[in-house]
Design goal:
alpha/beta, TIM Barrel, two-stranded antiparallel ribbon, 14 helices, 39% helix
């Protein structure tokens, strides 16, 4: 039985830090509303259906999301969790409200987005607003105490009586093995059989041997995994293997590299029009569908679309020519062909509007992407509720 879990972004409500860093009233919707089309046929700005720019501190909104997700075959949500050490958190209110209201009946898990909070949206990736402090055993214990009520909740997703805990970039954690050992011990003391640490970003999936003692499973997080895989093949001179993965995206990687070089030489890096990075939606999905997942340590991933130009403008990345029809076609093929033993498929994403990866209905496509999920699941006769 395959269960689709969608990544869920909680940055759709006003909070103190965002007001200080970005201006009064800033939420993810601010970027979405200000987006502009950057080429002919570019679908920006994306507008939620009926202009429903919701606020995630309202229970009715989360209940609406749950009803919608269940109706169209989404098994659960994976909430991003922002913990910076010493008890410092961001965007915790929606998931804490969810935890404290058992009537919000939806399986869920957490993904620790363990990266520094920076001015990414304005190109200032090195301008750190809040830094992650990893600390040692005392810090791990404090973090675990915060997480434990989530793990103990009946709705929290567990495998083999172990909570699944995703980490965005485990390679950033200085003493990951100790953290895993302690979390595992503390979970057993609580009555679980331990805990599963699961990596999200592609690096660990590509170098699993280095992390086998600390990471139990790696998600083939799309579209990042496919693009990183092709790029690594090209960097190591394995052009034939890269072309087998996705000829169209190999061409685009070369084109993107040439554009950046031309920009540096002739325009001193100031020509925004040359900076936009474009990839093929179709080519990426073909590579995903062809891949045979070897070993049960990898969990499959899918993506709805990707376009982070609302955040980054011409410095962004777009997977061009995606559509609900194409999404459904490749999702059906993916479910039919993928041979992973994992019961979970992780979807990018439920509501990443600022990255063009959302299943929620918009003004152009309505419910078509959600309908594509249900059609794909139903056509393969896979239980989903």
């Amino acid at each position: 039985m395959k269960k689709i879990i969608s990544f869920y972004l909680p940055q759709y409500y006003e909070f103190k830090e965002n007001n200080e860093w970005w201006g009064k009233g800033f939420t993810e919707w601010t970027n979405v509303k200000q987006a502009k089309p950057l080429y002919k046929g570019h679908y920006q700005p994306t507008i939620p259906h009926n202009h429903f720019f919701y606020c995630l501190t309202e229970k009715e909104t989360i209940q609406w999301q749950i009803n919608l997700a269940k109706t169209y075959g989404i098994y659960g949500f994976c909430f991003y969790h922002y913990w910076f050490g010493n008890g410092r958190k961001l965007m915790e209110k929606p998931v804490e409200m969810f935890l404290n209201d058992s009537s919000l009946d939806m399986p869920f898990c957490l993904c620790w987005a363990n990266h520094n909070w920076t001015r990414t949206w304005t190109g200032g990736d090195k301008d750190i607003l809040m830094e992650v402090k990893y600390g040692g055993e005392d810090e791990y214990r404090e973090h675990f105490k915060y997480l434990l009520p989530f793990f103990l909740d009946a709705r929290y997703i567990k495998k083999d009586n172990k909570p699944i805990f995703l980490i965005y970039m485990p390679e950033l954690i200085p003493n990951l093995a100790l953290m895993k050992k302690l979390f595992d011990k503390w979970c057993k003391q609580t009555g679980f059989n331990g805990i599963y640490f699961i990596s999200q970003a592609p690096t660990v999936a590509m170098h699993r041997k280095q992390y086998q003692q600390s990471i139990d499973y790696s998600i083939l997080y799309e579209p990042n995994y496919t693009q990183h895989h092709i790029t690594m093949l090209l960097k190591t001179g394995n052009i034939v293997a890269a072309l087998k993965e996705s000829p169209s995206n190999v061409i685009r990687i070369i084109q993107n590299a040439l554009k950046k070089r031309i920009n540096q030489i002739f325009f001193a890096g100031k020509s925004n029009n040359l900076c936009l990075t474009c990839f093929s939606y179709k080519g990426t999905w073909k590579a995903i569908c062809r891949r045979k997942i070897k070993g049960n340590e990898y969990w499959p991933g899918i993506f709805v679309g990707y376009d982070n130009t609302p955040r980054k403008g011409y410095n962004g990345m777009v997977y061009r020519h995606g559509s609900p029809k194409r999404f459904e076609k490749y999702l059906k093929k993916f479910i039919r062909n993928q041979c992973s033993s994992s019961e979970y498929i992780f979807c990018m994403a439920w509501n990443e509007w600022g990255e063009g990866a959302y299943l929620e209905p918009d003004e152009v496509h309505g419910l078509q992407y959600l309908a594509a999920i249900k059609h794909a699941i139903d056509s393969e006769n896979i239980p989903y509720m």
